[in-house]
Amino acid sequence: MINKGFCDAVCWLQSLPGVWHDLPMTSLIHVGMKLLTPDQDSGLGIEAEYQEAVRLHGAGGRKP
User: Fold this and answer.
1) DSSP for the chain?
2) Contact 19, 11 (CB under 8 A)
3) Which residues pair with 19 in a beta bridge?
4) 62 vs 54: CA distance, rounded Å
5) Residue 62 predicted with pLDDT over 60
6) Could you give the CA distance from residue 44 to residue 27 in angstroms, rounded to a whole number?
7) Which of 35, 40, 53, 61 is most buried (most C-beta within 10 Å)?
8) Separation CA 34–CA 63 (nearest Å)
9) Distance CA 26, CA 46 (A)
């Protein structure tokens, strides 16, 4: 489970518009790493959430 206090920082990216809080930024980094190196762990502590998102995406977004 992700700590809600985790979402306090904000980031700006040159390549993506808008303001990014650290949880969406962390998710973006984790997914990018999984695309490049699927067998590696990013070390960001969100692998369980990533696997659940992959499972739900495979089910068309529906919980079985």
Assistant:
1) ---GGGG--EEE-SSS-SEEEHHHHHHHHHHHHHHH-TTS--SSS-HHHHHHHHHHHHTTT---
2) yes
3) 12
4) 12
5) yes
6) 9
7) 53
8) 23
9) 9
